[in-house]
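INFO  loader      accepted 1 record
INFO  loader      residues=604
INFO  predictor   begin
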Amino acid sequence: MKPITSRNAFWLLLIVACVTLLPFLGLADFHTKGEPREAVVAYSMLDSGDWVLPRNNGGEIPYKPPFFHWTVAVASVLTGGTVSEFSSRLPSAVALIAMTVLGFLFYRRRKGVEVALLASFVTLTAFELHRGGANCRVDMVLTALTVSALYLFYRYYERGLKGVPWLAILLMSCATLTKGPVGSLIPCLAFGVFLLLRGVNFFKAFILLAGCGLASFILPLCWYYAAWLQGGQEFLDLVMEENFGRMTNTMSYDSCVNPWHYNFLTLAGGYVPWILLVLLSLFSLGKIRRGLTGRGVQEDSPSLRSGTRQPEARLSGFGGRLSDGWRRLTAWIREADPVDLFSAVCIFVIFLFYCFPQSKRSVYLMPIYPFIAYFLARYMVYLVEVKSKAVKVYGTVLAVLSILLTAIFLMVKYGMVPTTIFHGRHAAQNIAMMESLASLKGLAALPACVPPFLGTAWFFYLYYRRRYTAGYLYAICALTFGLYFALDGSYQPRVLDAKSQQPVAMEIDAIAPASSGTIYEFIEEGELAAGDPVHFFELNFYLGDRIENFLKSKPSEGYLLITDTDAANYLPRFEQDGYRFTHLYDSTRPVLRRTARLYRFTRE
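INFO  predictor   done
INFO  writer      dumping C-alpha cells
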C-alpha cells in the first residue's frame, strides 16, 4: 500500500472529523440537565446583554466561568441569532476537531504521518471524547485548550526554553476562564515534571512555570473582579466551593463522589471500542514475544540481538528486585525519546492529579486521551508488523457488529421485537424509545446504511488482502467511523428524543404563553439542597428562560410548575398562606422522574 502523504493525510483527517461530527449536532434534543443548564447561560447573555455574570434559572449565577458560554453565544449569533441545540454544541465539536488536527501536526513532525494519522483517528473515535465533542458542556473546550497548551509547551522546550510561550499562556488563560484555575495548573504541573525528568534545574523550572502560570491569570482575574462587583459574597462563596472546596474535599455537599478505582474503570470505558483491541491482543502477546525473541529483535540487549542469551544476574530478595526496577526506570527516563517521555508524563501526572479529589467524573480525564491515542497508534502499528491475528479478529468483530446493528434495527422497525420485553418503572419510556426508532425512515435512515456496507466491505478486503499492511488499521478506523455515523445520524437522535422534554415545554407554552403571566417553579430538592440546586433545566431552556423561583419571588399571581409529589406535600401549606390554585396540566412525559403539573394561582 502506497504511504499517504502528509498533505493528503491532513485534509483527509479534517474532512473526516467535520463530516462525522458537524452534520448531526442539532439532531437530538436536550435530554439531560447538563446541556440546557449551560446553554441557557448563553441564552441569558444574549437576552440581557450581561456577558459577565448573567442571572438565569430563576436568579441563579453560573457555576462556571464564562468562556464556554461566550463561544456558544457567538456561535448562536453566527448561525441565526438564537441559541439552539446545534449552536450550543458547536464549540465543543470545533474544540475536538481543532485538538485532533493539532495533535496530528504535533506527532506528524516528530513521529511520522502514519502514527500521527492513526493517533488522530483513535482520538476522534474514543467514546468519551466523541461524546464530549457532541455535547453542550464545558469539558471538551477545557480539554482542547489544556492539550493544545501542552503541545505548545513542548515546542517551547524544543526551542531551548528561550523567550516567552505567549500562545500557551493565552490558551491557559482561556482554559482558566472555562473552568477555573485547573486550566492553568494542569499544563504547568505536567510540563514542569517533564522538565525535571529531562534534567532542567528545579529552581529554573519552578520560576519559569510560576511566571507562565501567573501570566495566564491576568485575563481571568479581570473577569473575576468584574464578576465580584456584580455577585459580591455570593459569587466569592461559589468560587471557593467549586474550585478549592472541590479539590480539597471540603465542599458543603457531595458532588460526583466516587472511590479511588473509579478513574481506572471510567478510563477503560471511555476508550471503547479501542479497549477491545487491546484486550484481544493480550492473548497473542506471548506468542509474539517468543517469535520475536527467536529472531533476536524484541529485547534491547546485545545478547538477544546476536541470537544468544547470556546468563542473567539474579538479585536476591524484594530489595534487589525493587532496586533493579528503579534502575531500569531511571535508565529509561534518561534515555527515553523526549516525545515518548512527554506523552507518558502528561498521562501520569493528569491521571494522578484527579485521583486525589473525592469528586471524580469521567470527563476530568479527557486531557490524557490524545496522549494515550499516540501510544495506542504505535501499538497498532506494532501489531501489524508482527502479524498479530488480533488485528483481523478485532476488525471482524466490528464488521459483525456493524451488520448486526442494522439487523436489530430492521427487527425493531418491522415489529419483530415485542414491547412485552420491557418491565419495571422505565418500561413506558423504553417502549417510547423503541417506537421512535421504528419510525425512522427517509433521509434520516441514510446514515444507518453506512455500517452494513463497510462491514461487508471488510470481509471482501479480508479475503483479497491477506498480507498484513497498514491498510488493515485504516479499514478498522473506517468501520469505527461508520458505527458512529449511524449512531449519531440515525439511531441516537430518535432514541434520545423520546426522553426529551421539549414536547412538554411546547404544551406548557400553549397553555401559559409569555403574554399571560410568569411561570414559577417549586422543587423541594432544589430548595433544600446545600449546593448545585435542581431546576427544570430542560423546560426552562425550551421556554426561553421564563421560569422564576416561587419562594424567592413570592408572587401574587401567575403559573406554578411543580411535580406531583411536591404538589401533594406543599400545596396545602401554600394555601394556608392565601394562595388559591387551579390545576391546568399534567406532563405527558416524566420530568425529574415524576409528573410535572402546571397550576394557575392567585393570592388573596
